[in-house]
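Running log. JK asked me to keep both predictions on one page so they can be read side by side. First protein, sequence followed by its tokens:
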Amino acid sequence: MSKLIENWTTDLRYKKYNAWDSTYLSALTEKVNAAPWRLRYHIQPTSGLLNDPNGFSYFNGKWHLFYQAYPFGPVHGLKSWAHMTSTDLVHWEYEGIPLVPSNEYESHGVYSGSALPIEDKLFLMYTGNVRDADWNRSAFQLGAWLDQEGQLTKMKKPLIETDTTQYTHDFRDPQIFNYGNTYLAIIGAQDTNKQGRVAVYQSENSHDWHYLGNLTYTDLPMGYMVECPNLVFIDEQPVLLFCPQGMDHSLLDYQTIYPNAYVLGSRFNKETLTIENPTTLQNLDEGFDVYATQAFNAPDGRALSVSWIGLPEIEYPTFSDGWAHCLSLVKELSIKDGHLYQFPVVETQTLRQNEISFKGQLLSSGQQLLENASFSYELELALPKDERGELKLFSDKDAARYLSLSFDTISGKLTVDRTLAGVPFAEEFGNTRSITIPRHEALKLSIFVDHSVCEIFINNGLKVITLRLFPAANQTQLWLSGSGKGSYQGKFWELLSQ
């Protein structure tokens, strides 16, 4: 099979992995390697599709991170888990695809889940997806063990079968974690009234699980489904990350097809399954393309997270090149003055090279910060209070194409506009995103660019805007303009590839 597939049938999507001709995958991988918009320091698939991060953990002296994979094309098909390891959370090594559908409880896909070190092994808990002859779905929560030699052994029976008196087949994405002397698992769910829920289970030994109930964290309806719930603790304060589908826009202001949201609480009450004194719902990312964030409490004391940069049901320009999506930088989560902060882990600084410093007066006519910026860099920029201006990234020499960041520290607003940034896509969900920033205060931007990805951290991570964009090869200039009332300063680093 030499011709790459363009029209994907259901039979092709769910073809067993061992039934594929190896020459097809080799041809696809060769095409992907030669494709534009490939990344230098973000995790991306070697071929085909990447989506949810899974199994983020620390085990046997290394960081482990899995992701949902379908290696045969940029489509959602028979899912597996690809495996990455790292010693520093920045440079990742591909370890292959250890978790592939192989039994009756996962016949139509190994879906998302989490991982937890238990004694001398890494325990994986994940959802098995099953379809019958009429294409009706069933979901099973399954387990597997990864040993220190990298060998994976699946548990023979499901850990949790869906209670169809309470939940529909939309029951998936377990997060397992230690709590006191027990294990808890929270699972994204849809109840029989078609309402989004987070189900909670408990185990004393990691294989016998019993149901506790639904987690209470808001009085608002959470749409028709909650995906990818994660509960982490920062200085004992609970942080719940989750993805409500079909949520009313009047309850949370979001423009993406599905939001990635969070709440902070003062305390997690296990007896009542309640996050006490929860904040209002907040967007985890104010940008265009973040979903399915996974977080965990690392043994070094940090709360770490990583996100899927991509969204379901959206066509991306890389699909024609045989690959889809990537993962975000690893971020540390912290709480300051009642607000959640997200910022790339300090280890990210090891990627820096060729530092350039600059400073000057903002000019209404604009000024060129860099003419030939690489497509792989970090930009740190301090902008003054009581000033309005625009930063143009990915600009061509005529400023006909660029990514616009308009800032207003007088009225307190920042707007990102990707209308002219490159190949258009997902325009039905808007080309701009605006956030509020402190009025009459200086503004700090920390921007990480990786060819077709841009992660923007505002004021040390108080807010985050993440987006994909697909520029032409000549969009290498950076421009900055303002009203001339204040000065700026900043630093630029090219970032090493993996």
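And the second, directly underneath as requested:
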Amino acid sequence: MKSGKIMSAVLSGCLAFSLLLAPAASAAESAQTDSNTEIINEIMDYIESYNVEGVDKDTLIRGAIDGMIYTLNDPYSMYLNSDEAAEFQHQLELEYVGIGFSLARNGTEVYIEEITPRSPAEQAGLKRGDVLLKINGTAIADLEADPFSAAPGSKLTLTVNRNGAAKSVNVTLKSMVTTSVTGKIVGQKIAYIALSGFTQNADKEFSAMLDKMRAAGMKSLVLDLRNNGGGYIDVAKNITSKFMESGIMMYTSDKSGALTPEIIKGGSKIGVPVVVLTNENSASASEALTGALRDNKIATIVGTRTYGKARIQNLVPISNGGELKLTTLKYLTPNKEDFNQIGLKPDIEVQSKTAQLITALQIAGMTNITASGDSHILNINGSPFAGNVGLLKQGDKVYASARVLATLVESEVAWDAKNKKVLVTNGAGSISSFALASKEALSQNDETYVELNAFKKKFPALTWSYDAALKQLKLSVK
């Protein structure tokens, strides 16, 4: 199997929806429906009775339903049978079977980037930065199926590489729920809150976390919506009300084309500078919140362009226990931007996961930053985050990610393909170059790295140290 099959993924479907009761039909509509139903039943009877290959009636019915939905040319509308509907609800509430870690890739390596506290992964002794080699004796690249899709209670043996040594760990799959809201203070009273999904209780959890951050002296806020695939739109509206007293969150439009404003009333001002982090997996309800905070000039958006799902589905219960997820509304940002299949462009575009976080913290007011770790893990001012510093070591030379280094000194980085040089442009427009030919720079796995002594000569604000025993790097700016 390709190792991508076991990488952590965003909530499938990228959701924003509300509940809807089935509409009542008029007498004329009922008569027409009865006539149409007779035709469908007639054709189904002929197929069932005479088709040479034979066919299952339930399969015919499901095919007819899927065919109707297919003609809508809408990737978000779908029919869910009772089992699929139950699984959908699990996904929406961030419930899954697993061991409680997220995976990332560096070149050909698949490694553990984050571990959920008190999870089977943590209890088994797995650590951030462990590189997955084998699962149940099969090399990662050779797996034919996702081993983490097994039933709760299934046991796995993971072989990992930790600091150059192979280690086998036994772990048991468990039914788990991803916490929708996490948060912490990251130095200089900057609050960091990650919102992973708009579950039914996410608004209450967000409100409680916001109160906790305020009690800790919050002076600014970084709201991380990266990889948040969406959820309940009314929950997104409730969270929006924690940022603004009143105003337009978004506009909706049904098949008539008329625009209806979704208005925030009785909210509260956030009262501190806000930075929102987005990426290509920030979708649907995440985009509604992002657009509201951007257009109402409450937040600066940092990261990459969002997914681009400006459509809302209603969930209609069906008499057989299934559900119809049907697109019923378009939505636009307060500035009336329809970004469907386009995405929202950030105010400040930053590609690297680590550079995105550092940029957001800088905008939020962080002036003293220490980024430490290696090619797999990242700590900012001693606090763990997803990402890495891009450590490479060749002989006595130590290199770090060009994007991370440039971001730390608040500069822009570019690649000069013709001359094979890394170009770093500071705020005054002065350009410093680091060439592959002189070994001041390296290129590996489509990433560029700069030798740290060479970088410090041109950017003396950076200090660095390398711990040979831990094989970790520390980068600091003040």
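Observation for JK regarding the second prediction: Residues 112 and 128 are 5 Å apart (CA to CA).
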